[in-house]
Amino acid sequence: MNDLEYDDLTDSVLLAVEQAVEDADADLDYESHGGLLSISFADGS
């Protein structure tokens, strides 16, 4: 796997996780920036 293939794969995985967070019926906030996905829960964790 070369760098471009790796970047494409990780981008698609992050998008799938973002979509799952959006679809979840839970009190979650998320922020995606530069290949990093931060998820915050209602209790601050």
- The average pLDDT is 90
Structural class: alpha+beta
Largest sheet, strands/sense/barrel:
2 strands, antiparallel
**Rg estimate, integer Å:** 13 Å
| Helicity range | 40-55%
Count of helix runs: 1
Please describe the structure with a list of short key phrases separated by commas or semicolons.
alpha+beta; 1 helix; 2 strands; 45 residues; two-stranded antiparallel ribbon
Walk me through what this model shows:
The chain is of the alpha+beta class and 45 residues long. The chain has one domain. The chain is 47% helix and 27% strand. It has one helix at residues 3-23; strands at 28-33, 36-41. The chain has a two-stranded antiparallel sheet. The protein is elongated and about 40 Å long. 0% of the residues are buried. The mean pLDDT is 90.
Brief summary of the model shown:
The chain has one helix spanning 3-23, and strands at residues 28-33, 36-41. It is of the alpha+beta class.
Give the arrangement of secondary structure elements:
Elements: H1 3-23, E1 28-33, E2 36-41
